[in-house]
Write a structure and sequence with these properties.
By secondary structure, this protein is α/β, with parallel strands linked by helices. Helices cover 49% and strands 16% of the residues.
């Protein structure tokens, strides 16, 4: 199969799951061209991301003149399709908070993408996220006739489905992927029942070999780790408050916050105002090796999100045989099971989150180990990247066959 993966910003530090998916498909023999609108614009920490960046094309590197030339070539080559695609872009732009001018930029990006698809004789395009990358893929499909699909993660797509043109994108797509059954249910809300059969669940995956020998849960003072972007939806401020409450009863606990983002200043201020300086560490962004080390040294992962898709860090923690404390949000309860693999608490509930952290601190290490082992069994059974890539490859193959592209 000759595929084009269409992405917004790639690679990104928090999107290693896309890299794993692409590489798993390549192991199955697919040829994949990575085309993103832009690069991350910051230095990559992980050597795997550095290598992936070198393999990726970035449309906006063409500059305004390059994109204008792509538009001109497309109008000359297929004027009817170009006009129809402009109308489609404007129709979606009218309903979007991004506006029609931005959608004309998407049209220009689609013209460049269409050229690359045709040059490479690609048979299918796949976008990650139902936002602008899916828009560009849809427009490029309208220009070329090459089918497209896209994976919806959430929560952004579920916040503004009509503004993103999600119903139109789903109707025109060969198929749509949700990363959880919850995600699929949300997509079914925005298209008629006749389209439901094209919405499939394909999980984001982990590479089991990377977690082949989990380290036993350590003895000693309770250690928690939270891994993720410092953004409102991740619930860090609730976590800091809950940790402060739990620390009153278990004064030797420690919390490590791995990540960075726009809320770093607010989180640091909360840590300082609550007098947690010695009990809370912040690492910034780190590579996959360091993440596995932090998980190995922790007694549990804490993921206190307000809104999610299904976080990769939960899968990685469970593969590391660590119990998880998280929230009843989106697809998380499909993986984390209360009392079996960890704890689930209501999102935003400081008292419940503090209580779960006290539980981790007080129960025997053997019990934590049992929770971790069950979590590892569950995640390896549901989120093996090669198994999930096989499902996705089957969907690509069916689309290519139906479109007569193969």
């Amino acid at each position: 199969m000759k595929l084009v993966y269409v992405l917004n910003t790639y690679p990104q530090r928090s999107h290693s799951f896309i890299r794993r998916e692409v590489q798993a498909l390549e192991r199955r023999g697919a040829t994949i061209l990575r085309i993103a609108m832009r690069g991350a614009g910051i230095a990559m920490v992980d050597p795997l991301d550095v290598a992936e960046d070198a393999r990726s094309e970035h449309i906006l590197d063409q500059g305004a003149l390059g994109l204008a030339a792509a538009v001109a070539r497309r109008i000359i080559k297929t004027p009817g399709a170009a006009v129809a695609t402009v109308c489609l872009a404007l129709a979606i732009g009218r309903r979007s908070d991004k506006g029609m001018v931005r959608h004309m930029v998407y049209f220009a990006e689609a013209c460049h993408l269409a050229k690359r698809v045709e040059t490479e004789n690609a048979e299918h395009m796949h976008a990650h996220f139902g936002t602008n990358a899916a828009t560009v893929a849809m427009l490029a499909s309208a220009l070329t006739g090459v089918p497209y699909s896209f994976t919806v993660h959430g929560p952004e797509e579920f916040d503004s489905p009509k503004g993103l043109g999600l119903p139109e994108k789903m109707r025109r797509a060969a198929f749509v992927v949700a990363i959880s059954q919850f995600g699929r249910s949300q997509l079914c809300r925005w298209v008629g029942p006749k389209h439901w059969s094209k919405i499939h669940v394909v999980h984001c995956g982990i590479e089991p070999d990377a977690f082949a020998e989990p380290v036993p849960v350590p003895e000693g003072a309770p250690r928690f780790v939270c891994i993720g972007r410092f953004a409102e939806q991740k619930g860090h401020l609730v976590l800091v408050r809950a940790f402060a409450e739990a620390l009153k009863d278990v004064p030797d606990m420690h919390l490590t916050l791995v990540g960075d983002g726009e809320m770093r200043g607010e989180i640091e201020a909360a840590v300082g105002s609550l007098g947690l300086g010695r009990a809370v560490s912040m690492t910034g962004w780190v590579g996959e090796e360091r993440i596995r080390l932090e998980l190995a040294e922790a007694h549990a992962l804490v993921a206190p999100s307000f809104a999610e898709g299904l976080p990769m860090v939960i899968m990685e923690a469970m593969a590391s045989a660590r119990p998880v404390i998280s929230t009843y949000v989106a697809g998380i309860p499909e993986l984390v099971q209360q009392g079996k693999t960890g704890w689930l608490v209501p999102a935003g509930d400081v008292t419940a989150l503090a209580g779960a952290m006290r539980d981790v601190a007080r129960i025997p290490i053997a019990r934590l180990s049992d929770l971790g082992v069950e979590g590892r069994r569950r995640v390896l059974g549901r989120h093996d990247i090669d198994q999930e890539a096989a499902r996705l490859a089957g969907l690509f193959a069916a689309s290519i066959k139906e479109a007569g592209m193969g």
